């Protein structure tokens, strides 16, 4: 007998070699599995993540599930127990017991990623692990307009780095927002999509920054999508600025289905 | 011949062994001096700081001066040159040429330190290097009221850790503020004083938290000041949460001389 727990977590990715367990590397999955194995006094517990964030990528709302053997531990107690065993760069926010037909990867309806870019000439020391860096002039309104062309259902092959294992690259982009934080001298990009391909957000951000900087025309997005060719956008924004913000398991709320009749 | 430069800088202290040069340790002063020595092609340049922040302590407005040998470099160019040579955890904000009777330590009229405390039960991973941590209930209004007793000119011996070399421990506290940031679940402490003794802010914060938590009476401050005994407050808040916020070289502005006719 075992109980399935769904847990929501935040982590600072800058000292992890990504989410997924790798031999002899410090990873998020490996850290959580080690704690669970201690709790079970040696029984192996496999952690499933909603997605594998890369080295340096952060999470505010990553979701995992695992099957915990033995007696039921109340969700609040599980939350406390795991938090007590976590290093300071991981924190669990929420804990639930779920049905075994819930799967953290297969049950998602979409994900929300946020990307922060600092426009400072020289990086703010307190942001160096938490923002990408683009010390060039950008026209935010150009990026806002170009981003609208990403909305809807498309084959996103042009925005998928090689290395992904998924063949079907058709996804639905529900929501894109580009906003300037003048006080922080940052640009914040938000993307809600039915699913993301490998490095997709970082490639999208690199492309939008080129449009904002005038290196690409504002109407370049439909052409790039149509080309289905990764060579169209060669840049990839740094991992540093990327946050897995939220994972949806319910219908994507109306307010996050921008101008779409989906 | 040499030119004296006054420069304002920010740094993330968490990977430095403090400000002051130490053999075989990564320090702020050592990092800046190494860059200047490169610029002079080997001539030693000594950097003077307004104060020596401890390991883990951050700065938003640290001020340094140094005498640069040879021809005048315009301040903007000096700013750019030094920033280009700095690691990502240091940034220079401002550069000025000053008269040789300006001294970054002897010319100050006061300093402003800020201390951030997270009240979260488990530390937010993104704040672990930038806040102290006090996961206990606190009554902010009690701390606000008690803090007022620090204002004015006092012998602050009770709040000075051993290790300081200065005998005269009389200072003038111009401004104290304790505020709650409910959104961040933090308490922010601000202190503007004519000068700070060794670990003084961290000891003051530890004492105020004890008052906020009800471990000490709200009117304990005058008694502790009068005792002139470091043993009165045994706790010292962590270095992590402390920021050197601003150094004053002009008269302390009226708005920062709280309820005082000084």
From TrEMBL, chains A, B:
What is this protein identified as? Answer: tRNA pseudouridine synthase A
Residues reported in the UniProt entry to bind substrate: 113
Check the record and name the InterPro entries matching this protein.
PsdUridine_synth_cat_dom_sf, PsdUridine_synth_TruA, PsdUridine_synth_TruA_a/b_dom, PsdUridine_synth_TruA_C, TruA/RsuA/RluB/E/F_N
| UniProt catalytic activity | uridine(38/39/40) in tRNA = pseudouridine(38/39/40) in tRNA
> Which Gene Ontology terms cover its molecular function?
RNA binding; tRNA pseudouridine(38-40) synthase activity
Q: What does this protein do?
A: Formation of pseudouridine at positions 38, 39 and 40 in the anticodon stem and loop of transfer RNAs.
Say which species the protein is native to.
Answer: Lactobacillus acetotolerans
Question: Which family, according to the similarity comment?
Answer: Belongs to the tRNA pseudouridine synthase TruA family.
Q: How does it assemble?
A: Homodimer.
Query: Locate the Pseudouridine synthase I TruA alpha/beta domain: which residues?
Result: 10-107, 146-250
Keyword list (alphabetical) reads: Isomerase, tRNA processing
Where in the sequence is the active site? 54 (nucleophile)
Q: What is its EC number?
A: 5.4.99.12
The taxonomy runs: Bacteria, Bacillati, Bacillota, Bacilli, Lactobacillales
* Stored HAMAP family: TruA
Query: GO annotations under biological process?
Result: tRNA pseudouridine synthesis
């Amino acid at each position: 007998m075992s109980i399935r727990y769904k847990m929501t977590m935040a982590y600072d990715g800058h000292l992890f070699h990504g989410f997924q367990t790798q031999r002899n590397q410090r990873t998020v999955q490996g850290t959580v599995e080690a704690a669970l194995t201690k709790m079970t006094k040696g029984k192996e517990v496999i952690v499933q993540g909603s997605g594998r964030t890369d080295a340096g990528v952060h999470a505010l709302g990553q979701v995992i599930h695992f099957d915990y053997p033995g007696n039921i531990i109340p969700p609040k107690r599980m939350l406390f127990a795991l938090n007590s065993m976590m290093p300071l760069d991981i924190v669990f926010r929420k804990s639930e017991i779920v049905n075994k037909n819930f799967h953290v990867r297969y049950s998602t309806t979409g994900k929300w990623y946020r990307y922060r870019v600092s426009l400072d000439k020289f990086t703010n020391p307190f942001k160096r692990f938490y923002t990408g860096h683009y010390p060039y002039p950008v026209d935010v309104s150009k990026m806002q307009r170009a981003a609208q062309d990403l909305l809807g259902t498309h084959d996103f092959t042009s925005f998928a780095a090689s290395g992904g294992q998924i063949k079907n690259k058709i996804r639905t982009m529900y929501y894109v927002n580009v906003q300037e934080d003048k006080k922080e001298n940052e640009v914040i990009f938000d993307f809600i999509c039915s699913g993301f391909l490998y490095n997709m957000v970082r490639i999208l951000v690199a492309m939008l920054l080129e449009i904002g900087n005038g290196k690409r025309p504002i109407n370049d997005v439909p052409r790039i999508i149509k080309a289905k060719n990764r060579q169209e956008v060669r840049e990839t924004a740094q991992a540093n600025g990327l946050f897995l913000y939220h994972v949806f398991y319910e219908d994507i709320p109306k307010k996050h289905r921008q101008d779409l009749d989906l």
